[in-house]
Amino acid sequence: MSEPLLDELMVQQQLPAHPNDIRAKMWQHMVAVIMLNQTGRKAVKYVLPIFLDRWYDHISFSLASEQDVKDVIWPLGMVNVRYTRLKRMTDDFLIWNGDDATKLYGIGKYGSDSYEIFFKQNYSVEPTDKELIRYLKEEVNVFEIA
Asked: Which CATH number belongs to the domain containing residue 131 in this structure?
């Protein structure tokens, strides 16, 4: 997966398929959300595939050295903050029941809305993010969004 992600699709639409490991895909989704926070999506579309090649799931990530992670996420900026969010989110993920994404450290409204849309197929959420709104309108054909 080390090739950059496609520009015309959202990051969430391009996570690797894991039909037998939904927990890995959920964790990868949360990683992408944290990477997208205060960062241009083009940088994330380059860094995320490299990151996921090294750390496929929360278990492999929990064994990673801090410096190795920081070296990979460096192009995204805010390296110390982003590392802390990834680490603490992963710690929370180990005991998370998969219901409310805001229970995970570093996951706010955008991450929760994204999780509701892409994992729960809950299209009644009211996102404020323009890309999530566009996705609901154009890809899911939900037209009644504020």
From this structure: 1.10.340.30
Please give the span between the terminal C-alpha atoms of the chain, in angstroms, as a whole number.
36
Distance between CA atoms of residues 110 and 104, nearest Å: 13
- The structural domain count of the chain equals 1
pLDDT in tens, 57-94: 999 999 999 999 999 999 999 999 999 999 999 999 99
- Rounded Cα distance between 104 and 106, Å, is 6
Structure tokens at 102: 């805001």
Determine the angle formed by the axes of helices 130-138 and 109-118, rounding to 10 degrees. Answer: 20
Contact assessment for residue 13 and residue 53, using Cβ atoms and an 8 Å cutoff: no
What is the value of pTM for the model shown?
Answer: 0.88
Which residue is associated with the tokens 């180990």?
94
Q: Which of 76, 32, 67 is nearest to 52 (CA)?
A: 32
